[in-house]
């Protein structure tokens, strides 16, 4: 509930092995009198990044020379086309840093930073069953890639509006009991992916956050928020109970009284309040939020990768078992809640209230 193999040009690395033979490329030039259009030239530039094999120094020098000569666009296009043709049938380009494309996420890797962006802006990034599965998969891949840190953020004006409550309207053949059981197992695996994530996790909260997107913040190393962000966990309002290990992390972060205000009594915090209570690391003006955060992240991503990962293990390792236990307990309680008349009535009341708007 709720990336195409990372394309890194092999030219960026000095290989330790000696290349004994590079096949001679027979380059076909069209000799078009009109020459390549700007669109064709730009397309060829983008295609250059999809080459899987180093074409050799001779070809690279030709590419560089043609790239610098605007009157040689056609030759540039022809050269790139020839190189691609020599590699065999073209494969559709995938987003940088991805091993698979996703329907509900945008995942990319740049400057040693893997960014997982929730991408349902028209639905305020509400988390569907599909998005839960895709976040689990994206985290698994990010944990194994060459990035130093991983960032989670949202598209549009919202960070995340929590669970898409239409999840509760899709009843499987096994009935409500099966739905609750399946939802519980998916939530368990979802939270487990955050608990076990091996690298520093940074939340870039670009707008309001609700429900599970808030409770998970206790499992991040850093939480940056725009000044217009809010943090709301309306569990009792919907007849439910906390998840994301928040029943353990929130009292530890902000104390029992403040945690109870949020988790029991639905108090919504402003970004400044959340920062004062320790849930948020730092708050930035909305006008400069993205720029200032990007500067911080790029600096962190230059730090030694293994050092950061091992340090995180030391910090988190002592309580990892405890977090898994809490996750299991929270899921068990939630499954009970989802099957209760009280919860179903609260959810129906929510839908009825929305219908009147």
Automatic annotation (TrEMBL):
One of its GO terms (cellular component) is peroxisome. It comes from the Eukaryota. Its main location: other. InterPro entries: Acyl-CoA-binding_sf (IPR035984), ClpP/crotonase-like_dom_sf (IPR029045), ECH/Chromodomain_protein (IPR051053), Enoyl-CoA_hydra/iso (IPR001753), Enoyl-CoA_hydra_C (IPR014748). Keywords: Isomerase, Peroxisome. GO terms for molecular function: delta(3)-delta(2)-enoyl-CoA isomerase activity; fatty-acyl-CoA binding. It is found in: Peroxisome. PANTHER family: ENOYL-COA DELTA ISOMERASE 2, PTHR43684. This is Enoyl-CoA delta isomerase 2, mitochondrial.
């Amino acid at each position: 509930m709720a990336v195409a193999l990372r394309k890194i040009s092999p030219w960026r690395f000095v290989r330790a092995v000696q290349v004994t033979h590079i096949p001679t490329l027979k380059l076909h030039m069209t000799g078009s009198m009109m020459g390549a259009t700007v669109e064709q030239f730009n397309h060829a530039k983008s295609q250059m990044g999809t080459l899987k094999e180093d074409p050799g120094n001779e070809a690279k020098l030709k590419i560089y020379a043609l790239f610098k000569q605007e009157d040689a666009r056609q030759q540039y296009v022809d050269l790139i086309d020839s190189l691609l043709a020599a590699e065999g049938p073209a494969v559709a380009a995938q987003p940088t840093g991805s091993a698979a494309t996703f329907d509900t996420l945008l995942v990319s890797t740049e400057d040693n930073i893997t960014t997982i962006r929730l991408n349902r802006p028209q639905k305020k990034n509400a988390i569907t069953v599909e998005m839960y599965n895709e976040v689990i998969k994206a985290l698994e891949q990010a944990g194994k890639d060459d990035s130093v840190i991983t960032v989670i953020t949202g598209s549009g004006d919202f960070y995340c509006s929590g669970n898409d409550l239409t999840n509760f309207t899709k009843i499987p053949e096994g009935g409500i009991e099966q739905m609750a059981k399946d939802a519980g197992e998916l939530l368990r695996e979802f939270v487990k992916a955050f608990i076990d994530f091996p690298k520093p996790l940074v939340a870039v909260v670009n707008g309001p956050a609700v429900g599970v997107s808030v409770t998970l913040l206790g499992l991040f190393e850093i939480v940056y928020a725009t000044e217009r962000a809010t943090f709301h966990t309306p569990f009792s309002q919907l007849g439910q109970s906390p998840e994301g290990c928040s029943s353990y992390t929130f009292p530890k972060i902000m104390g029992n009284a403040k945690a109870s205000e949020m988790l029991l009594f639905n108090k919504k915090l402003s970004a400044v309040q959340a920062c004062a209570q320790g849930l948020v690391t730092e708050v930035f003006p909305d006008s400069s939020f993205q720029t200032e955060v990007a500067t911080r992240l790029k600096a962190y991503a230059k730090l030694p990768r293994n050092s950061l990962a091992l340090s995180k293990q030391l910090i988190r390792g002592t309580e990892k078992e405890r977090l898994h236990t809490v996750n299991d307990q929270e899921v068990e309680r939630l499954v009970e809640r989802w099957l209760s008349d009280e919860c179903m009535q609260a959810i129906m009341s929510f839908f009825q209230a929305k219908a009147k708007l």
